[in-house]
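If you are new to this repository, start here. Below is one unmodified record pulled from the training split, so you can see the exact layout before writing a loader.
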Amino acid sequence: MNTRNFPIAIEATEVISRKTSIYPEPFASRMQGREKSVLGDVFGLTNFGVNLTRLLPGSGSALRHAHTRQDEFIYILQGNPVLITDAGETNLSPGMCAGFKAGTGNATQLLNRTEAEVVYLEVGDRSEGDSVVYPDDDLHAVFNEGRWTFLHKDGSPY
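And here is the target side for that same chain:
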């Protein structure tokens, strides 16, 4: 097993954050104010991903979405985001966590409606053949061969 290219441990806050979204436009610009430090990749993790995510005031985690195969988990470190699910809104605070089982169709999103930064950890697996439904937007995503492809709901590409 080759581990020489991966660190033993790091300071998570020193990992360069990704400030742009992989969504196509017009959706990518809606993710302004979200910064992700992709921690799992630093260690060469391939079965699951771990991100340290920051939401500036007024920003959101993602478009409201539901995965068919990928479980997701979040743990709030700082701030007070609102979790949006099909059941409604839940106010979160540091130390709270939430898990989202794949295949339920329950679409989720975090919003920062406060004047303070929100920081949280997000963990998700990297299941081949995952598909994502965005009930509020004309968007559908499919994960194959290690990458996301984005389509309109009618199946035409972006």
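Two things worth knowing about this chain: The first helix runs from residue 39 to 42. Helices lie at 39-42.
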